Amino acid sequence: MFDILFVMIFGLSGRVLTKDTDTKGRFSSPVLDVTEKQLIIERNQTLQLNCRGRWELQWVLPSGVPKVYHGTQIEETRCGRKTNQYCSRLALSPALAQHTGSYRCRYLQKQRKQASVYVYITDSQRPFVKIQSEIPDVVYMKEGEPLVFPCRVTHPNTNVSLVKFPLRVLAPDNRNIIWSSRQGFTIRSPTFFYIGLFSCETLINGVKYSNKFLTHRPVNKILDVYLNSTSLLHTLQGEILALNCTVTAEWNSRVSITWTYPQKANGSATISRRISRSRTNMLFYSVLTIPSLSKADRGLYKCHVTSGPSKRDTNTTVIVYDQPFIRLKHRNSPVVQAFAGQKSFRLTPKLRAFPAPEVIWLKDGMVAAERCSRYHVDGFSLIIRDVAEEDAGIYTILTGIQQYGLFQNLTLTLVVNVKPQIGEKTVSSHQPGTVQRGSRQALHCTSHGVPPPQIQWLWHPCPPKGLS
Ligand SMILES: *[C@@H]1O[C@H](CO)[C@@H](O)[C@H](O)[C@H]1NC(C)=O
Ligand SMILES: *[C@@H]1O[C@H](CO)[C@@H](O)[C@H](O)[C@H]1NC(C)=O
Ligand SMILES: *[C@@H]1O[C@H](CO)[C@@H](O)[C@H](O)[C@H]1NC(C)=O
Ligand SMILES: *[C@@H]1O[C@H](CO)[C@@H](O)[C@H](O)[C@H]1NC(C)=O
Ligand SMILES: *[C@@H]1O[C@H](CO)[C@@H](O)[C@H](O)[C@H]1NC(C)=O
Ligand SMILES: *[C@@H]1O[C@H](CO)[C@@H](O)[C@H](O)[C@H]1NC(C)=O
Ligand SMILES: *[C@@H]1O[C@H](CO)[C@@H](O)[C@H](O)[C@H]1NC(C)=O
Questions:
Q1: What are the structural domains of the chain?
Q2: What pTM does this model have?
Q3: On the chain, which terminus has fewer CB atoms closer than 10 Å, C or N?
Q4: To test the ligand 7 pocket, which listed residue (325, 327, 409, 410) has its Cβ within 8 A of the most ligand atoms?
């Protein structure tokens, strides 16, 4: 019976081909012997397709047809009136449900020139092209892209519904949920609703068949990268170094944290990782530890974070001193100048030290901060508010790192300049007096200032009488 069928197809195709040759004259693309866009055959039948063209031909079969399949036969011949054409016959026997798909014939050299037909191979016991394994297939959701549940079917009229686990049937609406027997279900704009377990279901002769899918949305959003030191980190040789790189990322993210550091080739560091979840985010920790620092460990430490295509990094520079030290010097000279009435004045010598020393300021041998409420220590500077003449004196800064028995002192002299003032001006403003001609008069002028003011007397003759 099949033989008869083939003869019929052949007769038909022969005509089609001739017609095509006649009208087009030449085969710019190969031509198949079927004019329909789709064929429906039953399981166990033989699928036979003929293709004709001007150049050498090649078949492209659906992924469900194994590359090496004993049932596939391809027969190539030269054909046409002057045998200047190429013919290829594909036979697939027995055709099985999983062979459903698009069959293409193309030129070997010009692969874009092709002819295709979609073939459904029906099987009442196998409505879906793919057989469901125990484990649902994972489908990946990408932002801004449609989501496809690839439950292709072996018959174009199969009624399939999409079910969200546990029991929510989603009907195709031709707007967002599109059904295609050749593709399965396509969700044009998937929302969070489409994260979960789904199945394509169909009922055939009272038997339910299904294809299950688990949707997964890979997330690659790094929200924050934090290194617990981002400025210079001063350390001592032999000390432990620990750097904590904390990454905050969106739920479900996968993040990879790597480090680059000066002694990476030696593998001098150990790196430990931890993941935790908060209500809204994921936290990834990577702690780099060098148990005993050496000079060679100084340099740039960089924490690199990647999540899919997203990348971030953060860094810190580590300085390793071979021993603790204090370097204390005068900024310019041992004598500093301020002005009485100045809002504030800062006594600040040059100090470099590691680790941070303790600092005490003395004024004239007594702890400065206890001497006057206008004095206070800020960092290692002494700040004097509302500078007054009495602030002048000898100041000493005592620095020390008790732990290492390191101490250094430095003494500076503060000079407070005071604007000259004339005492009499404020005390007496007496009227010009009359004195006897020829008598001896003493005029007094008392002035004060720092440095001591110079006094200069000026004499103005009185204006002639009657003019005032
Ligand atoms: C196809 O062939 C197999 C084995 O050859 C047989 O078990 C099955 O019933 C056949 N199916 C159909 C639809 O003829
Ligand atoms: C699919 O469903 C429609 C309407 O519910 C029905 O008319 C049709 O026969 C069904 N097709 C198959 C193949 O079961
Ligand atoms: C790293 O830093 C984070 C945030 O400061 C902290 O919660 C976490 O416990 C630290 N990790 C380790 C191993 O100390
Ligand atoms: C950074 O975090 C690690 C681990 O929590 C800690 O041991 C280290 O002291 C921290 N370093 C700084 C500079 O805060
Ligand atoms: C690390 O490697 C460098 C070069 O290979 C070597 O000179 C150095 O001594 C090594 N340092 C340690 C601590 O092993
Ligand atoms: C280190 O990080 C800072 C910002 O925190 C950045 O400006 C700088 O370029 C980084 N340095 C390197 C070498 O990556
Ligand atoms: C610093 O001054 C303190 C108090 O005046 C004194 O005891 C100490 O010996 C001095 N240290 C040095 C290194 O000059």
A1: 13-122 (2.60.40.10), 137-216 (2.60.40.10), 222-321 (2.60.40.10), 325-419 (2.60.40.10)
A2: 0.52
A3: N
A4: 409
